[in-house]
Structure formats: C-alpha cells, structure tokens
UniProtKB/TrEMBL annotation:
Organism annotation: Pseudoxanthomonas gei
Keyword field contains RNA-binding: no
Keyword vocabulary terms for this entry: Hydrolase
Name used for this protein in its record: Agmatine deiminase family protein
Amino acid sequence: MTDAFRFPAEWEPQSAVLIAWPHAETDWAERLGEVEETYVALVAAITCFQAVIICVADEDLQTYAEARLRSARVDMTRVRFVPAEYDDTWLRDTGPITLRVGDRYKQLDFRFTGWGGKYQAGRDDLLVGELAGMDLFHDYFVQSINFALEGGAIETDGAGTLLTTWKCLHERHPDLPREDLTAKLAGWLKQDRVLWLEHGYLEGDDTDAHIDTLARFASAGSIVFQACDDPADSHFAELGAMGKEIAALRTADGQPYRLFPLPWAQPVLDAGRRLAASYANFLIINGAVLMPAYGDPADDAAAAVLAEAFPGREIVQVPCRALIWQNGSLHCITMQLPDGILA
C-alpha cells in the first residue's frame, strides 16, 4: 500500500491548517505586537472556513493567545491548541508533509537545517516527531528521511507533477546531480515528474528561492507566478526570465499551462533592507484563498488575479507586512493537513 500513497494538492479538501504562535523566545521578539496582529487576522480568516491547530510553547502562551483570539471574536470551536517546542514559527518548512492513500496517511519528516545552516533549528527539526506523540492524527505513520528539504521548496499539482527551483535544492545538496535529486524527490513524494526552474529570486528571501515565493499551481493545468513589470527594479530581468521558463513548461499531457502573472508591489524597505513582498505566498484553504497583503496599491490587483485563477473561492486579504520583516510571508507560516487525518 505504501506505493499507492499520493501527495495531495493544496486545493484538495483539508481538515485544518497547522501554525505555531509567536512568542518572545522566537525571532519575532522585537516586533511581537505587530506580528501577533497578523496571526489573529490569519486565525480569524481560517476559522471562517475550517479548523486551525495552534502550537504553543507553554500554558501561559496558550492562555494569552486564546484571549487575543476571543477578543477578536474568533470561532473558538474551530481552534485547537497543542503544546510543542519550536525555535520559530515557519511551519511550512518544519511541519509534516502529508501523503495519503484512501483514509490512511503518511507524514514525511525531512531534516530541517535552518535553511542550510543559516539559523538555529534544533527544536524545529524535532517538531514532526513531537506532534506524532500526541493524539492528534489517526491512521497514519511518520517516515523519517535523512535529507534536507523544506515544504516551501516544493509545489505539487496533486496529479504527479512537482515544481521546484534548482537554486534551493542545489544549495542544500551541492554534491548531488540533478538526476539524483529528481529521482529522490519523485520517489519520496510519489511524483511522476519534477519540473525545475532555473530562474527566480527575491531580495529579502533567505530560503535560497523557495518555489512558494515564486510560482504556484492553481490547478493541474494552471500556474500563478510572481511577475515584475518595473524595468528599473533589480528583479525585472530575473523574474522576466522565470516567466519565460514557466511559459515554456508543459502539462503532463503536453499542453501549455494557463498562466496568471501577479502584480508587483512597490519596494518595501526596513532600515534600508529590501523585504520580499511576494503575492505568490498565498494559502489555499477550503472554499477560499488567503493572500498576503502589504498595504500596497497592488494588493487589490493581486486579489483580482487570484480570483480569476481560483474561480468559486473567496479571496481574503491578510495583512502580512509584519511577516516579511523576518523574510517570509503567509504560506511560510502555515501547513495544511488533508481531510480526514484529525483524530
């Protein structure tokens, strides 16, 4: 039965979204109040459609987070807290990557190295195993894989096609040729093929070009990607080259993808440092797409593109300017859990 497991697309039905609440011992300490506002807005948005599971470092943090959410009139019947230790809150990269076959599930526990050793990540690397020790999921098992891979580095269409960037995977595994990396990803993630992008980067992104900041599947036949239409911007040439690469990709049956280029936000600077304000870092949930908003005129234009790419889903803007201060955005702090896995 193991060979029959499948990696679901993000738009497939979900049980919940998994997040971790920020606190003073994480990298959010300097701007904790600002980022808490984002988390409150995120949980409020998710619980309009489905459940959310929130990791908390201790009982005091749970009490505080619960009070913040109740004051925002969040539907607490859709909120579940679980105790866990974590260095930071980027659960896209530290949470479980879940495969399924029927009503059985397998969670892949890849090594998390702090994006190639950039940050301390000892507790984050243990998170999947820690969650496995709780009565949180059922009919599942964990497969530990001694290979550095972050969830933000991979994107699947749920039908056997994986999209990723060569820059990120090559940085993590410089001694492995592309054929070996392709075979490993296809084998562990049950993919028929792996599409590699050579171009694409964002200043202020320290993940070495995670795909979820650049290009995302909207269906098995369509891709949403971050474009740049400002010739004076330092990203113009690189994102333009990425756009041409994506236009040259073909679906499994040989057809060109339907493409949805996202608008470009004006530069967001913090003490002179450029921050990665990508609209591609959206989160798909049941009945909706949550998109990062940056207080930029392009926010509404990005929402219009996503509405076209995801017909029938509500587009909800979540304020994420506080998140990009720490080099990530909305998708980076979340991990969806497929329908049926919750105990």
